[in-house]
Amino acid sequence: MKSVFRAAGLFLAASLLAPALSAHASEAIVKKARCVACHAVDVKRVGPSYKDVAAKYRGDAKAPAALFDKVRHGGAGNWGTVPMLPHPADKISDDDLKQAIAWVLSLE
User: Fold this and answer.
1) pLDDT, tens only, 38-51
2) How many beta carbons lie within 10 A of that of residue 101, not counting itself?
3) Domains (ranges, CATH) in the chain?
4) 88/104 Cα distance (integer angstroms)
């Protein structure tokens, strides 16, 4: 019986820590890819803050794909006149980019 409670406790602890670890990993991804040169969590720099991006796309089911394309291919006009440069797969992998976008969209 003790092993059942121990296993349940470990599962609960892992469930509570997983989002924090995932968020930390995703934030590390944007730092490694140097996205932070133009973006910050809650302050506008060259580009919008991550929280502003999250607010703009909140509830939009197409946002992850749209943001993936925007980051991968670059563009201008959504946030002003300064263009965002394309970020090819050799700079940030598809998986890392998807994790980073999920993290940005999760911000409140």
Assistant:
1) 999 999 999 999 99
2) 23
3) 23-106 (1.10.760.10)
4) 19
Under 8 Å between Cβ of 71 and 84:
yes
- CA-CA distance, 20 to 23, in Å (whole number)? 5
Whole-angstrom Cα distance, residue 94 to residue 84? 18
Q: Is this model's pTM higher than 0.90 or not?
A: no
Residues 6+ apart with CB under 8 A from 40: 49, 50
pLDDT of residue 20: 47
- Report the C-alpha dihedral over residues 24, 27, 28, 34, rounded to 10 degrees: -170
What tokens were used for 9? 């406790």
Q: How far is CA 45 from the centre of its chain?
A: 17
